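Q:
My hope is that you can spare some time for a protein that puzzles me. I hope you can help me see how the letters and the tokens relate. Thank you; the sequence and its tokens follow:
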Amino acid sequence: MGLLANRLTDWLGGKRSGTINPAQWLVDWVSGGPSSAGVKVSHKTALRYTPFWAGVRIISGTIAALPFLVYQRLEDGGKTRVPSHPIYRLLHDRPNPYMDAVTFIETRQAHVLCYGNGYAEIQRNGAGKPVALWPLLPDRTSRKIKDGVPYYEVQVTGGEKLSLRDENVLHIKGLGFDGYTGYDVVAYHKEALGYGIGVKEYGARFFANGATLSGTLEHPSSLTDKAYDRLKKSWAATHEGLSNAHRMQILEEGMKWNAHGVDPRKAQALEVQKFTVDDVSRIFNIPPHKLGSMEFSKYNNVEQLAIDFVTTTMVYWFTKWEQECGYKLLGPEDRRKMFCEILADGLLRGNVEARTKYYEAGRRWGFLSINDIRAKENMNPIGPGGDVYLDPLNMTPAGTLPARPSAGLAGGDDDDLDAVRAAHRELIVEQWRRVIGKLTKGRIKGVRPGWWHDQQRWAREVLGPACAAYGSVVGANGHTPEVLQRFCRQWIDPERSLTDDDAPALAEMLMEQIGGSYALSQ
């Protein structure tokens, strides 16, 4: 071994390095050295490359910002949050006394995106229950197997190595063919990252030196060394750097300036920068527009692209976290009835118009109640009255229609009736505000003849589902379309100037004409 060590030392030019705190030459030798572009690529230099930094920050920040919750399965197939569970506190609030949940999750996910693995030690009490999560460095932690039993080896300060049992390490891993660890992302994509970093550095030097050699100085005779140095320093001080571009220079002793054109190949090299963003996009499976490349994105499809980012990029990582936390943090008994889930509903929420149509259809066809809709909009329930589901009469088998109650909800509790009416009134008010908003814009822009008639028809389409739902509740849905048509013809008129403040009164009057009333004073 001594002979081999001496030969290696001679081959490396007499340089020596230990493995506890390795020198940079050893790190480069182990990682394969610089990329083909001549750029050294490490985890730190990769993060200095802005597209790579953006990809890591966006994915890790998105996961960290979402609520990480613990649910209990219900017998009817539903679920309910369990904020009193100890794991809920670790994932949602603070995994340990020194770190909040956002920082903890963000850092672990950033480690996965750079190193392929993110680790955390699970501290347990005497009963084996998790009480804290402590971060581990990915470059000092590795998963090993001995006698068929997996464990984790952690290198601590001073070169000491500690072994942790497999169940006591939370391990989020990326793609890896052995199923035990993920591939080092930076090492595997060194060439693509090195190329992007090299193009970036080229562009920086291109502008630092005045963007290009735009001309040459011609002197009628030879210059002395002293005159040459003085001229060179004077020219550099005056013209080098982007801020000194296009400045004037006084030429002496008969010197002439010969202008040259821009080398198109050098200018084209700068165009390559935008294509290097696509490489990072492919590495992380993240849409290019999230990295700032809007070449194939339009403002009219940004919302759809945001949803596409969740479904194609984030769901993969959500599942990784949910399965690992559910298995390592919940005990065998808890896993039968509980599970961990990242709440991503807010990211999948479409635009206002699409959500309104969905809620209208859900309310009309009976698969959404008022409280269901309010929950999806992050609003509190209105009470038991908001849990009423409508039964579409036109979908009832022939001959099975029950007798229609004479008025209202027969035998219903007054408080429940008030709550139901209030909920419907709120929906109708919101639809009136939508109608008034469009009328206001039309009045400002100026409209064609017949526009107001078209808006009456459109308003009936917007208000129709909510009014029909209210009419069915109070037993007056038979004449609701006629009432709504007459009401829209009366109030949607160029002679009337409606504002948002009129929406509650319009809703109240419309509900009163349909049948039943919920007073504004209530």
Remarks:
- Residues 1-33 form one domain.
- The CA atoms of residues 146 and 152 lie 10 Å apart.
